[in-house]
Amino acid sequence: MDVNLMETDYAKIKAYIEGNSNEGHKIWGALARDDGYIFRLYAPNADKVYIKGDFTNWQNVEMTKNVDYGYFFIKLNAKVNDYYKYVVVKDGNYVDHADPFGKAMDYEGNFASLITDDSYEFADKDFLEKRSKNFNNPMNIYELHIGSWIRYGDRVNFLDIVDKLVKYLKDMNYTHIEIMPITEYPYYPSWGYQSTGFFATSSRYGRPVDFKKFVDLLHQNGIGVILDVVAVHFASDFYGLKTFDGSHLYESPYEDLTYSQWGSINFDYSKAHVRSFMKSSFSYWIENFHLDGIRVDAVSYMIYYNGNENRGIHKDNIYFIKDLNQTLKEKYEDVMLIAEDSSSYPLVTESVLNGGLGFDYKWDLGWMNDTIKYFKVDSYNRSHYHDKITFSMYYFYNEKFILPLSHDEVVHLKGSMINKMNGSYEDKFKELKVLYTYQMAHPGKILNFMGNEIATFDEWNENASINWDIRSYPKHDDLNRFVKDINYLYKNNPAFYKYDYEEKGFMWKVVDDSNTSVFAFERVAENSRFLIVLNMTNTYHSSYEIYYDENLTFEEKINSFNPRYGGAKTYLRNIKIEKGSPLKLELWEYEAAIFEIKNNE
């Protein structure tokens, strides 16, 4: 009998095994006691389990099996900073494993779990008290890869970059960051999307306490933190979850369901304890690190068998997604749940109670693909692609969308954002300003990957820093300043965010002028009203007319040709019109302009 457990603890174990727990991290793994640590490992099909580590001089010590609940346990005189492994035995085969609930692991190339002291006193109470899901608040997300934002040698600790990062984010007027996965993973070029340690902070970037301080400092400076998490699959390395106890404990026994297209292994959410495992992982990160949101990767590969709609809906995964989201919403009502989903599956951001999947937001990958396709087309032929800009608003209110220009768009020979723009060197910078204005002003929250804001010509490389030196070139510095200013305008004017998901917050003014490829629309909220005008081609218009039936003043707030951004329009316009008279605008080639609208009456 496990003398370290009370009867209530057995109830928690039972709930975990039955799929009704999100507290596995409080039951399994290395748990501190006054005179050492109790180790518990769920491995119901194993014949034996040994533990070895610094505290056993790396000699195998057999653990005791609780046959009623299928787990092994032992109490040992271990201490913080001790490394350890489990040796799982089935049918005479001995396999070393990391602890599935380990909070840290050895450095890349090794896989021993590490006992850590992650005690930390957060000082972000004020931030957490004001925190919300941001449906009616500004949310401009800076997507970040910890290891390559600024790189110091072979390794980058969270705390190496946090001070510079905070200063930069505040200066650039971003509201949140989204961090690419930091759960421990064996292969650096996977960027963390194939994990072996779903409770372990990657050793590449520091220990759990370092990440806590990282989040805390961001919160103290008003910046929210979203973490990418992968729930569809795990890395196939032998020491991870693969055939963990000699059986298919975490994966399906059927080969066509086991492997993903990436060679990783799919979680089998028909198994109740697997659902508890992943719910516990999400809860661990949210609770212990004060995260403001979780972005779930590759949701379409969970909705459909390996993402293949022709194979039909994966009902076990749908059940799990709903269970996960409902559990988290009930416990963390102000934490955002975000789906990276490329499918057309309906009601992704509808509540579970109303038949939806229960996410708060969904990435609008349709908008991203259409927009990039449009800007790749030469100016003359854009009239034939007009619907690539207009189509998003036909479906936009079906979900709560985020507009992403993410890391996925600037790797693997896809080209950087500046290189996606058609035309000459000069035109590319003009067009990128138009694109970023369109993204900022379009309904929905905003996400951009690091480096987009400086128009780096290089594709992202996880082994090197972003090329910050490129800002020494005026065109790149001008664009960086432009992004800073539109971010500020967005952040400080409710018209751009308050009614993102209500039709009253948006109105087309010019939507069908495919001959000129000029678009115009308004964003509105109570006492905040703006007109956005985008000339998407290299055609000059001496007097472009937009009809209004009101007495209005149009005060120009942003113009992409302002000298501040390297342009030659030496003044911002202030135009008054009378009811029934059109607004007449001179539009330069590839010009973006934003006007605040005020009533003259």
What does this protein look like?
An eight-stranded parallel barrel has the order 10-11-14-17-18-19-20-21. It has a six-stranded antiparallel beta sheet with strand order 22-23-24-29-26-27. Strands 3, 4, 7, 8 and 9 form a five-stranded antiparallel beta sheet that branches. The chain is built from 14 helices and 29 strands. The protein is of the alpha/beta class and 601 residues long. It starts with 6 loop residues before the first helix and ends with a strand. The chain is elongated, with a radius of gyration of 26 Å. Helix content is 24%, strand content 24%. Helix 3 runs parallel beside helix 4, helix 6 runs parallel beside helix 8 and helix 13 runs parallel beside helix 14.
Key descriptive features of the protein:
alpha/beta; 6-stranded antiparallel sheet; 8-stranded parallel beta barrel; 601 residues
